[in-house]
Specification:
4 strands; alpha+beta; 141 residues
Length: 141
């Protein structure tokens, strides 16, 4: 019995040699696929979520067994980039909500960065200087 499992382990190791394996994107895909699969049990008609769920799971496995490591790494980088961008956006919205009584956020017309300033009185013209590119702009509050 032990011999059997050792052989199986060796076979799996040999099979996975030169293959990409698991990364953050495959974790995300398999989790999303399982959630969709679970949700498909409750939503009619079944096929609406069932086949997309299977497709996502197959995609996740396909990536893990792929031998095109360069391409999979590029996908992973893209995924991490998107995840970071979403995380930044969530943080910004959370901060805007937290500061809603004390601060206002303005977007710099030059570099699109957000500038946070203490909430001024209504109906005044204020000069704002961007912290990132030092561009100054006028805003009416
Ligand atoms: Zn700027």
């Amino acid at each position: 019995m032990r011999r059997f499992f050792e052989n199986l382990g060796n076979k799996i190791r040999t099979f996975m040699q030169g293959r990409y394996g698991v990364d953050e994107l495959s974790y995300f895909l398999s989790t999303a696929g399982l959630i969709l699969l679970l949700a498909s049990c409750f939503i009619r008609p079944l096929a609406i979520l069932y086949f997309p769920a299977l497709a996502v799971l197959v995609w996740s496995w396909y990536r893990s067994f792929s031998k095109n490591i360069y391409k999979r790494q590029k996908e992973r980088n893209k995924y991490l980039e998107i995840r970071r961008a979403i995380g930044k956006k969530v943080t910004l919205v959370r901060n805007m909500w937290r500061d809603r009584r004390t601060h206002r956020y303005y977007r710099c017309p030059n570099c699109r960065a957000f500038v946070r300033i203490p909430k001024p009185g209504k109906g005044r013209n204020i000069m704002i200087t961007c912290h990132r590119c030092h561009h100054s702009f006028n805003r009416r509050t």
